[in-house]
Specification:
The structure is a single chain. With 482 residues, this protein is α/β, with parallel strands linked by helices. It contains ten helices and 26 strands. The strands form five sheets. Strands 1, 2, 17, 18, 19, 20, 21, 22, 23, 24, 25 and 26 form a twelve-stranded mixed sheet that branches. Helix 6 packs parallel to helix 7 and helix 9 runs parallel beside helix 10.
């Protein structure tokens, strides 16, 4: 009786808060797994500019460690444009842009304590003629080997080298970039304690352009036998002049599949087609994000879409730019979760590694409702083997989408977790409501309890305008989810 009353309440809310409704039949093909993402799929970054400009992070904060732990297991990538201007020095910060042994020690301590693996991006712009000058990098690697840090970290070399000319830096050929990676691998293998430390790269952006694609393919072909992952970067638009409408524009949904598709094509044509593809740095808007937009509820639509489309197209890891303090950060300068942190936390809790194909009908072009399906995460939630998690978003501001499930889900009850702005109707809200309750940390070391709403078998789900939701079918008993 309670389940029916709760569902009726949602139905009434949908009817009263939107101008129209739309029936959206949902078909999930659970006969085939289309991708198995890494268990560190949802990961994040810290931009190297944090060290260039001395804006250090208090990694000893219990609140920060709690928030990082709740996104684990994950990767923390420390890199970005400023990585190609950083110098490594033992103790003294002689000037801005010096990265010290204390800095790397702090990163290792926080990542080890939060079940997070560190990736550190080295300066590729240190040159000896046409070759990468590894002298300064070797000082850092030697220290990491001595302290047995290498077992907890991997390495990158350079960031978005296709933009070196734009940034008034030394322009490198694809072969010179590849030679640097080969040299880095030889350097790591020369230290006994760094044998388990891998290389990731080349951290390029638009592989849909010929020159960038050549860099990507060249590095994979030269290093694929030991390259842990091939990395590309992706942003939808510049944050400088973006508005909330950009973050809810369904026409952007088609952008990422094209980029991933080209990267997958280049990998398939390379000598090493089995190298995993990562989104090594990504957010919605480049240039630090959009002030008073990227840290609001509205940021979640394209972010959730990116998580869904990346997983459905073969990507193994997605590294969100970035963790702390910037406009597009998951956590603000006072260690409070921004809305996209809460979205990421729930995704990390409920969504598992195996991915299924989803087909939707009854939508406009471009589609304003998106739906994705995975096996449920049985390691981080209370759901058991065989369960399936569906997540969905609706960027239509006036129409409720009624998701009607077919096949094995047509007669299954399910739990829902509906995410809405904490300030009703305001997508620029800084807070998030989950099933009507505002998400907040009860203390520095605790997370809120989340309680799902149950729905009877056969009930369509009302995905309200400008909302996101996670639905779990606990009794689906899908064989591929066992």
């Amino acid at each position: 009786m309670l389940l029916n009353l709760l569902y009726l309440a949602i139905f009434c809310t949908a009817s009263s808060s939107s101008l129209s409704t739309r029936n959206v039949p949902v078909t999930i093909d659970t006969n085939k797994v289309i991708n198995i993402v890494d268990n560190r799929f949802l990961s994040y970054t810290i931009d190297t500019s944090t060290y260039k400009w001395k804006n250090f992070i208090d990694f000893s904060s219990p609140r920060l460690r709690t928030l990082m732990s709740q996104l684990s297991p994950a990767v923390l990538r420390v890199g970005g444009t400023s990585a190609d201007g950083l110098i490594y020095n033992e103790t003294t910060r002689l000037r801005k842009g010096i990265f010290t042994w204390d800095n790397i020690t702090a990163l290792i301590k926080v990542t080890r304590s939060t079940n997070t693996r560190l990736i550190f991006d080295l300066n590729q712009q240190l040159r000896n003629g046409t070759e990468w000058d590894s002298t300064n990098a070797e000082k850092l690697i030697k220290f990491c080997s001595k302290m047995n840090y290498c077992n907890s970290m991997d390495w990158e070399l350079g960031n978005e080298p296709e933009y070196y000319q734009r940034d008034n830096r030394t322009v490198l050929t694809a072969e010179q970039i590849g030679d640097g990676f080969v040299k880095l691998n030889s350097l790591l293998r020369s230290y006994a304690n760094c044998q388990n430390s891998s290389i990731i790269g080349p951290d390029v952006g638009r592989v849909t352009t010929t020159s960038t694609g050549i860099i990507f393919s060249t590095v994979v072909n030269m290093t694929g036998s030991y390259l842990k992952a091939a990395t590309i970067h992706h942003y939808y638009f510049s944050g400088t002049n973006a508005t909330k409408e950009n973050y809810m524009n369904a026409s952007y949904f088609a952008d990422l599949p094209k980029l991933i598709g080209q990267a997958n094509k280049l990998l398939s044509e390379s000598k090493y087609p089995g190298v995993p593809l990562w989104l090594g740095e990504t957010s919605n808007a480049y240039g630090g994000g959009t002030p008073n937009v990227s840290d609001r509820f509205v940021d979640g639509f394209l972010w959730l879409e990116k998580l869904g489309i990346a997983a459905a197209n073969g990507v193994k890891v997605v590294c969100r730019q970035e963790l702390y303090r910037s406009n597009y950060a998951l956590i603000d300068g006072n260690f409070n979760p921004n809305p996209s942190y809460w979205l990421s936390w729930i995704h990390n809790m409920l969504v598992g590694q195996k991915v299924f194909a989803v087909n939707l009908t009854g939508l406009p072009t471009p589609p304003t409702t998106r739906v994705y399906a995975h096996c449920a995460n049985t390691a981080r939630s209370s759901y058991g083997p065989g369960a399936v998690t569906v997540f969905a978003l609706n960027v239509d501001t006036t129409t409720t989408s009624f998701l009607a499930f077919s096949g094995p889900f047509a007669n299954q009850s399910y739990d829902s977790y509906l995410l809405e702005p904490g300030d009703p109707g305001d997508v620029l809200s800084k807070s998030v409501n989950l099933n009507g309750q505002t998400l907040t940390m009860p203390s520095d070391v605790a997370m809120p309890e989340i309680v799902p709403i149950g729905h009877p078998a056969g009930a369509a789900f009302a995905l309200l305008p400008a909302t996101m939701a996670f639905l779990v079918f606990p009794d689906a008993k899908i064989p591929l989810c066992h």
